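Thread: "does anyone have the structure for this chain?"

Original post by V.I.:
We have the sequence but no experimental structure in hand. Need at least a predicted one for the grant figures.
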Amino acid sequence: MNSSFLTFESVDGIDLVIADYRGCMPDEFLRRLRVVSDWVVQQPPRSVLIITLVKGIVYDPGAMRELVAMLRETKPHVRASAVVGLGHLTLLIRVINHLSGRGLQAFESVEEAKQWLTELTKRAPAVRSGDTSRR
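Reply from O.Q.:
Generated one for you, tokens below.
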């Protein structure tokens, strides 16, 4: 998949997916959310390591409902999720995790998120670089 808001990066031999929603209004957020969700559900169980960028996002109750539904739908395919850009809204992660059954982790920077995902994977390897069928 080739998209300006869904990119792939290998860090220390570990494949990461970066979903960029920064500055999105609700309609664009939902459009991107559907594209990312469609990609994630095509991946093997517990294989996706994803960083979600959300700084400046504008959402409404409908977008939040769709986000929770998407998180539930993609849960079997995601190994770990990091969210960057919530700022003072990190409490929102607890609510979203409760509603979706996911374990999203909030970070201040992309580098912190990458470090967490790569350390997590090194402790219990499951996804290694070179599986180009996922892209």
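V.I.: this helps a lot. The chain has one domain: 6-93+100-110.
O.Q.: and The longest helix spans residues 26-40.
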